[in-house]
Amino acid sequence: MKTALTSCFLCLLVGLIVALSLSLGAVKLSVEQVISGFTSSSEFYFTIHEYRLPRTILAILVGGMMALSGALVQGVIRNPLASPDVLGISQGAGLAAVLLMTVFPSISISWLPWAALSGGFLSALLLWCLCGSHSNAIKLALTGIAMAALYSSAVDFLMLTRPLEINNALLWLTGSLWGRSWDQITMLLPWVILVPLGFALSKKLNLISLGDDAATSLGQSIPRTRLLALAAAVGLTASCVSICGPIGFLGLIAPHIARRLVGGQHQLLLPCAMLVGMIILLLADLMARIINPPIELSAGIMTAIIGAPYFLWILVKIK
Hints:
Elements: H1 2-23, H2 31-36, H3 45-77, H4 89-103, H5 112-131, H6 137-161, H7 167-173, H8 182-188, H9 194-200, H10 202-208, H11 212-217, H12 222-244, H13 250-262, H14 266-290, H15 299-317
Helix pairs in contact: 1-14, 3-8, 3-12, 3-13, 3-14, 4-5, 4-6, 4-12, 5-6, 5-12, 9-12, 13-14, 14-15
């Protein structure tokens, strides 16, 4: 009963923030104006249908998918403080994108998502080659942290050695929904198919949480489950980063909040984490637009402002 009420409350909160996202911004619109903005003959059509609605939908998709990716990584590594950043996926995607923008500054921006997506998958492949299919969770996490540091250093090197081409790179690296349209939603939608795959692994992740030895004794194939879960997490993270840039802390704090709300059973944790991720990114994007209009902050900056204090609080609570 408590879980059902929590889920209903989160769904209502998502709906409320969606309504606020469509209404608030540089120009505040009434409910009637928002509704009229869905018709092409309205003067508010561009503001609603071509600007606020696509970025709101994108915030829902990216927030949910990044949160699910974080929950899968935490389930595999068996550490509630893990996230896709721990595996170096976000940093690998960021390196590929920055490499494209700095080495080929005149190339069409339409190539950016594909470069970031390729970088995310290549970083995951390298991690898997270094660790092997039977590596334990600790080795996987430590190797990922080392690779993430290497990718971040490479990004810094590129921006320092090519100072004339870093403006677009800096803007993209902050993680933003600004300027995103229906084209980006179309590119992201095929990757939503990984969401059911993540849900299908719920029971297996529950067994992994008991420990490798216990899960193996219960007939669970640890390497196969770990491969499927990490593959889904990589696809979800790389696709989101390729569209919006790296959005920090989302894959960490959303699953952690969800775990405190509904517990550690992944059948409940995964959908709840997605709802929390949607709320965080919708709220971050809304705050980024209304704090000092018409100037917009990046959603990634806002998620860091929200997530960093919560992360520190988690560390303080750990005995």
